[in-house]
Amino acid sequence: MKSITINGSQRESVGKAASKSLRNAGKVPCVLYGGDQPLHFSADELAFSKLVYTPDVHTVVIDLGDKKFDAILQDIQFHPVTDKILHIDFFQLHEDKEIALDIPVKITGNAPGILAGGVLRLNKRKLKVKALPKNLPDFILADISELEIGNKLYVPTLAKDEYKFLHPDNTVVCQVRISRAAMKAAQDAAKEEKAAAKEAAATE
Fold first, then answer.
1. β-strand pairing of 85-92 with 59-63
2. From which residue to which does any coiled coil extend (predicted)?
3. pTM for this entry
4. Burial of 20 from C-beta contacts in 10 A (0-12 / 13-18 / 19+)
């Protein structure tokens, strides 16, 4: 999985007043959990743009000068009016400990069902996986090449040895459904066929 480095400074002062001063200076107060004790630090708001405003998932290297920590974004708070970042929580990664993370689903292939007039419905845009940090994928590849109209792609189809899914086996990732236009055309054709049969029966 791709990683983004956040350069920050460890905080000595915590609390509302200290956090407000940081925000006024264009910085975001943060906390890193998962270690021996919570670590408070801050970083420039602009440093988080590639981490927060993207559909992709990244691990994070928190660089505090004399210390570096591997982590993932755990929680983020935005201002309800301005949408400015108010606070971010991170969780420290350990090489020997598995972590659960939501990973984006990426579609690949051309489904015969779509070529026949069906439409693709993506039921799961992200899937939760559990793996060691080194085995976390950038995305889950869902191959729809075999899907006909009415077919569904289930989670076990996407299984890999490097990670496991935290979803029931009957979870539908995506499916090809008949389009409304095709459904209406089929209904109209059925009505016409029924009417023609009635008319033929009446003339006999």
1. unpaired
2. none
3. 0.77
4. exposed
